[in-house]
Design brief:
Helix content: 40-55%
Distance between the termini: 29 Å
Mean pLDDT: 95
Radius of gyration: 18 Å
Strand order of the largest sheet: 1-2-3-4-5
Low-confidence stretches: none
Number of helices: 9
Strand content: 5-15%
Order of helices and strands: HHHHEEHEHEHHEH
Shape: globular
Number of strands: 5
């Protein structure tokens, strides 16, 4: 199972890199590596759109304090049971973000804090990418013991927004495991918020044997 990424036009890449080099020479914090530039081009299609999107992301990262989130021990401990970046990787080497949905309730979370924790997890996972080999992530939603009170549409909207705006093309695959039958109603709503490309990355896995195509089931935590 290998990556099959949409190609990026060499001329587009050259132009975007030229523009970004000018800016990064003046302000090193603006720097994005070649893999990142290509992800933005794949997501935003044109040089202009990709360039504007990168500038917006850079501004957001500063204003949101992304670089310092790992220092917020209180936040990380408070939401530690909501998601975890695993030590192991999936079959093709992607870092894995594991989310046990049963631990979630829209009644006991602060949306701003939880969104910060999501950004912390995305950052942590992104840093674990071996970009020359694979530069995107595997997100696993485990719906074991999931009930409707665990469903939090606002948090999912925030995750989708973050992935599309500030982590474009970082999602390689999203596995949904142990989904109860009634989740199909929730999925019908969620799917409406996804573009066709992202929706195509969401895979419902119905058995442990199917899961083995993507990762070794034993690596998933049982202490959350």
């Amino acid at each position: 199972m290998t990556e099959d990424l949409a190609p990026v036009k060499e001329e587009d890449f050259r132009q975007l890199k030229e523009r970004m080099t000018l800016i990064a020479d003046a302000d090193p914090l603006q720097y994005h590596n070649d893999y990142s530039l290509k992800r933005y081009l794949r997501a935003f299609k044109t040089v202009d759109n990709a360039f504007q999107a990168i500038l917006k992301t850079n501004k957001w990262r500063v204003e949101y304090g992304v670089a310092n989130l790992h220092e917020n021990k209180e936040l990380i401990e408070k939401y530690a049971n909501k998601a975890r970046v695993l030590r192991h990787r999936d079959i093709i080497g992607r870092p894995i973000v594991y989310i046990p949905a049963k631990n979630h309730s829209s009644n006991d979370r602060n949306i701003d804090d939880l969104t910060k924790f999501i950004v912390y997890c995305l950052e942590d996972a992104s840093k674990k990418c071996f970009e020359e080999v694979v530069d995107n992530l595997c997100i696993v939603f485990d719906l074991n013991n999931f009930t409707l009170s665990c469903m939090d549409y606002q948090v999912l909207k925030n995750l989708i927004w973050l992935l599309s705006r500030h982590y474009p093309e970082r999602l390689g695959i999203c596995l949904i495991i142990n989904a109860p039958t009634f989740f199909s109603g929730c999925w019908a709503v969620i799917k409406g918020w996804l573009d066709e490309n992202t929706a195509g990355k969401v895979i419902f896995v119905n058995s442990e044997m199917d899961l083995c195509q993507y990762l070794i089931p034993d690596i998933l935590p049982n202490d959350m």
